[in-house]
User: Fold this.
Amino acid sequence: MRKIPIKVRLTAWYSVVLALGMTALGVLALAGMKHSIRVTVDEQLMERMAAVRKAIGTAEDAAAVRAALRGNLAPESTEELVQVADENEQWVFQSSWLKTRRLLAEGRAQEVERKRHPDFWVVLEGKPFRGMSATVEAGGHRYSVQLAQNIDDFEEAMARFRRMLLMVIPGLLLAAAGAGYWISRRALAPVDAITRAAQEISGRNLSARLEVPDSGDELARLAETLNAMLARIDLALKRIAQFTADASHELRTPVALMRTRAELALRRPRTAQENQETIEQLHGEAVRTSELVEKLMLLARADSGARLMRSEAVELVGLAQEVVAQTSVLAESAELELEAELGAGPVWVAGDARFLRQLLVILIDNAVKYTPAPGKITVGLVVEDGAARISVTDTGIGMEVEELELVFERFYRADKARSRETGGAGLGLSIGRWIAEGHGGTLTAESRLGAGSVFTVRLPVRSQVRS
Ligand code: ADP
Assistant:
């Protein structure tokens, strides 16, 4: 089942809240109206009671009371009623309409008078009345007086108001819900547009971008954020495509070379000596190719974001000595001098010995490759500003200033023809920088064309050493 759309939910919530608000308002208005009617009627009743008091205040007996009241009240009225009884519960005066009815039974009258507000509601012949009861003393007698007033008009006004509310509130609600729906639809229209545009973007047209509404609001920010994300994905995919293309290109050359050598060897019978040579050449190519594949795999794994590096206590002086000893054969065969200036040590860093060794091998290997004999390679290690600084200095061919950053890019070779001979694919330094940065450090280069280069690794030193 599809979920209910936001605009419908918004409208529904809005309508419910509005309905509750309007109902509360209606109830309050009705209650207020009823209260004010009651206050008005009660004031009129009190005025009439005061008039009655005044009229009979000086009467000596029941006959005088009757005469006074007849002069003051309208006994024929069916709207304003009055009944007066003496202390013997004998009727002294009654509105003519009341002759056949009771406004209030005597017992009830006393009960009403004991209340703080001696008022009452009564329905006579289906007509609503509001009444008031009081005891008035005159000429040594106590008279029980009840006044009542027809409130038909007020009730009618209330009913009309109630009917109006019942008609107006649903109408208003309907109109407000319609307007609410229209507003939320308008407000959310850009979201639909973004959704539709996003649906059209696939792996093939990742360079397409969403239209950013110039409202500068949340939706504009959403579109901008999605666009920035698309740009990042686009770049990442382009890099992957580039990497795959470069990698296949790099692999094609050695594989083609091996194939040609093998085909040549197979074309006619060869001496054992010749076969031996071919196998050695093929072996050499195979070794270089498998090294290249190793590097490619390492970079691919690095790109996948997997945590490949461990963080252990590594002692750098020992590690550098080991690598220098291991690579000295290389230097010797290239007729180069390899010197280590490592200081007394120990220098501890947190990291992965395997990768740090690989980093040093890459730098020394490059120095050997790019230094013609006779030359010298120096591996140095000092600690300064809380960082271990390992440098590999050579007296080789050097690099142009513009190349100092480029050489750290994948597959970059300063001089393609020259590097091809030395067998590099342009991956060593990018792996080296990835290792240095993975240790929270840096790898930088300085060089002068024709004079030599210095590659420097800086790694943060561990202050606390766990053994
Ligand atoms: P490669 O496998 O080609 O050596 P690298 O990434 O290790 O790849 O190096 C990239 C390029 O940087 C090399 O092709 C070379 O031109 C240049 N380079 C690296 N080290 C040195 C050095 N010590 N002296 C001069 N050039 C160097």
User: Anything to note?
Assistant: The domain at 218-303 is CATH 1.10.287 (Helix Hairpins). The chain has a mean pLDDT of 87.
